[in-house]
């Protein structure tokens, strides 16, 4: 593994060997021409006396001594590195793996993902194997559950989806597990996750969660970056086709039906975004929307003015990971083309590429979702324009109705267009 391409080890090892040989020649020149000439002569005569000329030539003895000295020098460097690694808390046997991962991942594509929910965290868990240049821009309009309680109590942006994304990108399995731990008992903390409470603590200490971003990335040791789409807590408002409005993401599932959502807005509408978010979009090789709920995960992240403007101006291809199924109370009877049209209306830009799953879930899974009012999304009845933008692949997690993280990451890396390609 130490000799694997890209680690940056072979070049320095070669330089060390060359410098050692040059140093040996310099020492020989100094001793033979300087005041140590007598000592060097006695040393050579003593070594020659140990070698039988009939067994090996005399010069071979010098080569053997030189190789033994070089091996000793390399051994001393290796032991020095082991001591340094142990002193920093890194197991020596893991050092080469960490170096390979960091070197390999640092050359990965710059991918920006927008959305929230479990779909976003699943995508990030697949991308983290291929690149360390992922930036997740997470919607923070959630007002239910643990996030809603913390938001109301501390006037902070919703931390729930951020926690899921941090766990998905964390290099520490223990930390990832702790972030997602939900307290089942305890006055005041029941129902909260450890990650949400940690983000609330950092937000309280730094003044806001956006000011604590650098500390969070350093503490959690994540591959990539995770940022909130907005720096202030917004309220998501659904404007229905029958003229009604529904305020609060948590109310959509119960208040939208029997009507449909015409469009959604944020209150207040002029939310600021972090400069790092805008810069990440400008520098991206790919922009990925989803997977996730259309009106409560993906579109809210597109409604922040600075984010929307950067997305419209970037030359990077915009890729929409199509939802697998409709969501009761949010996208009832909405076709896949209607999903894409909703993104276009809210953002002002049509996705350049649409990743569509063509694998079919098991019948019992389809029946279970159908009983809840959800149905599969496909390209059936889609226009020629949408079909031309679509990349159709098996993206389904075996036996389930959700995307497979590994298959989705592979599709984004190899099937979807890059900045220098056109659809």
From TrEMBL:
Record-level Gene Ontology MF annotations: LPPG:FO 2-phospho-L-lactate transferase activity
Q: Which UniProt keywords apply?
A: Cytoplasm, Membrane, Transmembrane, Transmembrane helix
Q: Name one GO biological process term.
A: regulation of cell shape
Q: Please describe what this protein does.
A: Required for morphogenesis under gluconeogenic growth conditions.
Main subcellular location of this protein, as a coarse class? cytoplasm
Species of the source = Deinococcus soli (ex Cha et al. 2016)
Please name the SUPFAM superfamilies in this protein's record: CofD-like
Transmembrane segment boundaries: 12-32, 56-77
Task: Give the matching Pfam families.
Answer: CofD
Q: Which NCBIfam families match?
A: CofD_related
- Please tell me whether the keyword Transmembrane helix is annotated for this protein: yes
The name under which this protein is listed is Putative gluconeogenesis factor
Q: Which GO terms describe its cellular component?
A: cytoplasm
- According to its UniProt record, where is this protein located? Cytoplasm
């Amino acid at each position: 593994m130490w000799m694997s391409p890209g680690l940056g080890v072979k070049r320095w090892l070669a330089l060390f060997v060359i410098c050692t040989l040059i140093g040996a020649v310099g020492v020989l020149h100094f001793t033979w021409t300087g005041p140590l000439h007598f000592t060097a002569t006695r040393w050579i005569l003593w070594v020659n006396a140990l070698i039988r000329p009939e067994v090996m030539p005399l010069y071979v003895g010098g080569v053997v001594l030189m190789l033994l000295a070089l091996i000793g020098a390399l051994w001393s460097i290796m032991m020095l590195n082991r001591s340094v690694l142990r002193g920093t808390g890194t197991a020596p046997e893991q050092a080469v793996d960490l170096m390979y991962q960091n070197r390999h991942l640092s050359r990965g594509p710059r991918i920006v993902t927008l959305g929230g929910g479990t779909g976003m965290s699943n995508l990030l868990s697949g991308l983290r194997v291929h690149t360390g240049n992922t930036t997740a821009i997470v919607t923070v309009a959630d007002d239910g559950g643990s996030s809603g309680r913390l938001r109301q109590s501390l006037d902070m942006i919703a931390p729930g989806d951020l926690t899921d994304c941090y766990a998905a990108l964390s290099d520490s399995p223990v930390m990832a597990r702790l972030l997602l731990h939900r307290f089942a008992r305890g006055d005041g903390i029941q129902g909260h996750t450890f990650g949400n409470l940690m983000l609330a603590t950092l937000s309280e200490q730094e003044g806001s969660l956006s000011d604590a971003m650098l500390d969070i990335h350093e503490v959690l040791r994540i591959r990539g970056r995770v940022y909130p789409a907005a720096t202030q807590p917004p309220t998501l408002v659904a404007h229905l086709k029958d003229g009604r409005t529904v305020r609060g993401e948590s109310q959509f599932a119960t208040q939208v039906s029997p009507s449909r959502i015409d469009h959604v807005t944020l209150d207040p509408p002029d939310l600021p975004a972090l400069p790092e978010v805008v810069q990440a979009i400008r520098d991206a090789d790919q922009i990925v929307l989803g997977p996730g709920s259309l009106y409560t995960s993906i579109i809210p992240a597109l409604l922040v003015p600075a984010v929307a403007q950067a997305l419209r101006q970037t030359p990077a291809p915009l890729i929409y990971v199509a939802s697998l199924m409709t969501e009761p109370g949010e996208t009832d009877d909405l076709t896949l083309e209607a999903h894409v049209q909703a993104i276009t209306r809210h953002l002002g830009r049509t996705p350049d590429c649409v990743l569509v799953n063509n694998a079919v879930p098991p019948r019992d899974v389809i029946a279970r979702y159908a009983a809840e009012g959800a149905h599969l999304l496909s390209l059936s009845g889609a226009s020629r324009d949408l079909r031309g933008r679509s990349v159709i692949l098996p993206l389904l997690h075996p036996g389930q109705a959700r995307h497979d993280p590994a298959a989705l990451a592979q599709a984004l890396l190899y099937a979807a267009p890059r900045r220098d390609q056109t659809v």
